[in-house]
Amino acid sequence: MKTFTPCQMIQPTNDLASYQAAIQERSQNGFISSSGRKKRNIGSHTKYWKNGKTLKIAISNANDEAFEAVIAAISKWLPYVNLKFEFVRGETGDIWIILNAPMGIQSSAVGTDALIDDIGGTDEERRGPSMYLNWVPGYSRFEYVVMHEFGHALGAQHAHQHPDSAIPWNVQGTYDYCARQFGWSKEVVDANILPLPRSDQYTYRPYDADSLMHYEVIPEWTFGGWGQSETHAISDGDIAMMREAYPKN
Length: 249
Description:
This protein has one domain (8-27, 40-245): Collagenase (Catalytic Domain), CATH 3.40.390.10. The strands form 2 sheets. It has a 6-stranded mixed sheet with strand order 1-6-7-5-3-4. The chain has a two-stranded antiparallel sheet with strand order 2-8. The chain has 6 helices and 8 strands. With 249 residues, the chain is of the alpha/beta class. Helix 2 (64-74) crosses helix 3.
């Protein structure tokens, strides 16, 4: 039985544009640590926003109730980052959120990938939405979904994709299930569910099973009936990662 619909991280179509946007936003994004020091979650450290920045967050297609619900959920990250959030209605901002898009997906670009468009430029007027959310009044998971997607917008990857998670993945079973239930290709599953190969592109903290950025893992995806529910609160590991990414002076 399908218990939920997973989110999809929006993948950049132009890797060079992604890199250029990242280093223009924050020069440290171009530096890769070779220390090998393990960290507590998996974050796309090349896509963090400039520390101390006021992020302009544009929200479109939202009634007053939905607008306030999105603001409340996103603001739960504020105590843990050295950033300010400016919320506006419309389509123009560092991050553009659209509610109830026709495709019905819930997804977000990772960090500064929100600054690029499909052509590869960074012209604010040409950029499309960088986050999609489904608003249903009274939906109990809405706050969690917004917080999870905004974790991506701050630069976090999926915690369950940590290469050290030791989750007993049934790879073919996961492919089959996601194709049947969600219409996902193997490439989409690899990008959003299965472990990412260890890479210098990422910073690592020890695997955090309690992370807000961790999917529910269902038995159909694993061997031995292994499963895990999702966490609807920002974990200690999430806090540590964000405070390291956006330290307060």
